[in-house]
Design brief:
alpha/beta, Rossmann fold, three-stranded antiparallel beta sheet, globular, binds fructose -6-phosphate, 32% helix, 246 residues, seven-stranded parallel beta sheet, single chain
């Protein structure tokens, strides 16, 4: 079942979730354990990342024991490419923290053998002990990560084709719409479901329809976010607009 948490606005949601993330990091590092975070890109998690940076700067929250795995990367874009997700994360989060650079993991969008790269990514997640807390956004197609419809519940990290709706939505980050890559490497639905905790963020009226579908529809590959109903500890963090169709 999906737990629903309504926040007054996205800043309040970011503050609440950043605090929970900090508590988790603190608790685990006290017992000598790393914290493995699964991270998303896109506009939605930006207030959360800003708040984590604030906690680092003003409350000395340390990320030295944190290991991160991002959900996805565009095929063909290397870490230095301005529109790569690696670069996005560097600018909006990593470069502002004390996280060791070796603890930051991404699928390699330039991999010569994507299948091997994806298998290695799965193995790296397992070797790190699995994801403790996975942050998600949701696409209007119902995608989580870049698991576009149809995506099976058993799907693993793999090379995928992006839906045209997603390419149009993500064009805001590119100089021109045709520059949005057609393919990406993404964690699979099964990979995401293995995270011990999943926190999905969705704000604004544009997400209202898809949030309602994700929560209400019978789980199926046609709306991959519905698979989250099978997760034992998944919370959707919403504002009044994104929750308006529930
Ligand atoms: C990003 C990702 C996507 C986004 C989704 C929502 O790494 O995996 O699933 O979370 O496309 O994007 P925004 O937040 O820009 O609406």
């Amino acid at each position: 079942m999906i737990a629903l948490r309504l926040h007054p606005d996205k800043q309040s949601a970011a503050q609440a979730l950043a605090r929970e993330t900090a508590d988790l990091i603190g608790l685990r590092s006290e017992s000598g354990k790393p914290t493995v975070l699964g991270l998303a890109t896109g506009s939605t998690p930006l207030p959360l990342y800003a708040e984590l940076i604030r906690l680092h700067r003003e409350e000395r929250l340390s990320f030295r024991t944190v290991i991160t795995f991002n959900l996805d990367e565009y095929e063909g874009l290397g870490p230095a490419h301005p529109q790569s997700y690696r670069r996005f994360m560097e600018e909006h989060l990593f470069r502002h923290l004390d996280i060791p650079s070796g603890n930051i993991r991404f699928p390699d969008g330039l991999a010569k053998d994507p299948a091997q790269e994806c298998a290695a990514y799965e193995a790296a997640i397992r070797a790190a002990g699995g994801i403790d807390l996975q942050i998600l956004g949701i696409g209007r197609t119902g995608h989580i990560g870049f698991n576009e419809p149809p995506s099976a519940v058993e799907s693993r990290t793999r090379r995928v084709r992006l839906d045209e709706v997603t390419r149009r939505d993500n064009a805001v980050f590119f100089d021109e719409p045709t520059a949005v890559p057609h393919r990406a490497l993404t964690m699979g639905v099964a990979t995401i479901l293995e995270a011990r905790r999943v926190e999905l963020l969705a704000f604004g009226a544009a997400k209202a329809d898809i949030v309602a579908r994700a929560v209400r529809e019978t789980p199926s590959a046609d709306c991959p976010a519905t698979w989250l109903q099978r997760h034992p500890a998944c919370t959707f963090h919403l504002d009044a607009a994104s929750a308006s169709k529930l």
